Amino acid sequence: MNFCPCAIVPSYNHNTAVGQVIDQLRAQNLPVLIIDDGSDSPTKEVLAKFNDPDNGVQVHRLEINHGKGGAVSYGLKLAYDLGYTHGIQLDADGQHETNALPALLILAKCHPDCLISGKPIYDETVPKSRKIGRWLTHVWVWIETLSFQISDSMCGYRVYPLAACHKLLDQNKIGQRMDFDIEIMVRLFWQGVPVIMTPVRVNYPVDNISNFHVLRDNWHITKMHTRLVFTMLLNLPKILRNRPRKVSPATHWAGLDERGMSWGLSIMAFIYHLLGRKICFYAMQPILVYFFLTGRKQRAASLDYLKRIGRVVTPKINANWWQSFLHFRHFAQMALDKFSAWMGDVSLADLIIVNEAEMDAVISSRKGVVVFASHLGNIEICRALARKRSGVKITVLTHTKHAVHFNQLLAKYSPDAIVDMLQVSDLGPATAIELQDRLANGEWIVIAGDRTPVSDSKRVSEIEFIGYKALFGQGSVILAALLKAPVYMMLCMKDGSKYQVIFEKLSDQITLPRKNREAAIKNALSIYVAFLERFCKKHPYQWFNFFEFWIRGK
Asked: pTM value?
């Protein structure tokens, strides 16, 4: 199924923050459907001004106020009729942070048949009465669904699968007011739609106008729960038969916490500096076992990868705990090799440069290039020895604090080994200008191409990798096109006691024509992915993306 989402924003007399909400949604290339639910004349006029179908914003007015549920139901049906596959529901008052959208959308794309719902993380602005009322509703929902899968049924920040919603709304009458969010979630669950909850931050703006009427809406919610409980009892066999599977959500790599990574690196660096590599290797085994046993998601990703790679490489690679532990062990050895390289214990004699003549020609030209790296192998070896061999200055673009912390450790134990890093979550004009200046000075700009973007989940391409569809971020290709520099691909694979460096050209310059921009991006990424696949098959245990990488079912 093609993933084609849009945002559905119901509004009743909310006109203060809606403009900002629209801007934030459009900044992420999402089409926006504003449903004006019979607002008063001033709000009607403000909302009408936002109508701009050519630029992805449509305003639809309901002349009579239907309530939040009525407005959202109208928006879901409209989105389905317009050909969208998923509808993102969020409020017009700005209480839902759009920073959470990339994570919601990635989950929806990886699990297109699921309802993705926010699980609120409140700040001090939340009224205490709301928190108490929510807990009462949670208990009733657990009874109605005979499950604890729905941990919060009142958060109106969701991604709906529109086909399932269209079927449900055609066959059932759903509450039209504040009872809607709860009832549609419960009934979709009864229909067999899995639910995935993901944390989102929610605040209540100081000047916010609440449309929640304590007596009226609580009465509607009470009647709804009564109705749902009796409906559940009358249809118990069917509901149990349709009970949806529990889905373990795909976790975006940027959302994985460090799980003690900082202290693990610090201990390893201290032991290495004090006692050397051999003692450090043995000392790190308990740390490795700890990470393996406690890293449930990372272990699951390892097993999934081993299952896929085993099908195309050799049946000797099996998806079992022992081979997954070996996979983790290779990762630990890779981390140790990083320290060895930066501490000067890896020499140029340990390198085997496959395309040495081509690399030397690029170095001799003294021109800056963009290098696509990855989490296959150990590119750190190349970075560590680059100055010794060629004097090339390298700038590494990183999205996480892990790399920054590693650089800080290097500064402590080997001050000459610091690498210039730019920690970015998004590449704005200022960063692009700075990178162009660095290229003009002959620097190499290194960026990983095997991660989905942190801030814009729509900038991805589906490409077959090891026989299965996976998402690759378009950012590396778009950046290279903006910088108008030659593009190379580089890997460093451990081969026995040596390190094999692979350096291949991707393009003299990537260009992205307006008419077939997406195709041009995908073509460049396909070359890069084929490059990764070739060496992943040769060195299967040196793939170090320990998160859910492939699209489920593809």
From this structure: 0.58
